[in-house]
Amino acid sequence: MDTEDAGVNGQFDVMTLGCPSRLIMQRLGDKWTPLVFLALKDGPRRFSHIRDGIGGVTPKVLTQTLRTLERDGLLKRTIYPEVPPRVEYELTALGGSVLGPLEVLSQWSQSHAASIMRARDDYDELHDAQ
Amino acid sequence: MDTEDAGVNGQFDVMTLGCPSRLIMQRLGDKWTPLVFLALKDGPRRFSHIRDGIGGVTPKVLTQTLRTLERDGLLKRTIYPEVPPRVEYELTALGGSVLGPLEVLSQWSQSHAASIMRARDDYDELHDAQ
DNA sequence: CGGCATCCTAGTTGATACTG
DNA sequence: CAGTATCAACTAGGATGCCG
Predict the structure, then answer these.
(1) pLDDT in tens, B77-117
(2) Do residue A56 and residue B17 have CB atoms under 8 angstroms apart?
(3) Which member of A38, A101, A113 has the closest CB to residue B104?
(4) Out of 2.60.40.10, 1.10.287.130, 1.10.1740.10, 1.10.10.10, which CATH number does the structure's domain A31-129 have?
(5) Which residues of A touch B45 (CB under 8 A)?
């Protein structure tokens, strides 16, 4: 039997223009979101730790990403009123439930990077030759 | 089918700036890629069928997406020299191996869309409250 | 330390129209 | 039918500098 979510979970369908579920999927797949999830997979982490763990993020973009994920209930932000200030981020239960799939995707990417680059070269050689 | 892919996850690391695996993961997560995969999950499909199945794609963007995926060896494009012209797209074995994870993501998005929107409202109420 | 505010650019997307 | 071409627009992302 085909278990269509559309029936069970209501009216959400990523194939439909403007459907919230599509926007959410796009969030999950955007440039930095998966990397933030990976950075938080082992528990709460500080801002600077996340920043250092993700090669190439600027503070501004990291902040934006973290805020969006917090707003969506995927991670929790805790401020410790100390000097110097300390802020920790950690995945919520909801956020934790996507971690698995995102890890699968990252590992797939790492595992198949070589063959994809090879496919790319083959394609370019055929279509772009000289 | 060769197994030259990095069996270990040591060679490629998505956390590293400029690593090809990161670019590949970003490709998988871009605006239209997952939707194309979903449109092709049941076998070969024609251009117009894919276009009609994905709400809001323009031909230009769809073509771009399909070309990129073809170049990366994730799908195959077959031209049938008929009148009228017929072109079919289908996932390769490599492409088929990411379909599962992408479906998981889309279903997760559909299943949790409601609670995420609710989390969003809660957040806005707390932080935007006047 | 952990952010905002600003400005700016570069790549992406979209609307529209046209073609093999 | 299955695209391509062109132009316009948008916006994510980066550089820089200041603040609690």
Answers:
(1) 999 988 889 999 999 999 999 999 999 999 999 999 999 99
(2) yes
(3) A101
(4) 1.10.10.10
(5) none
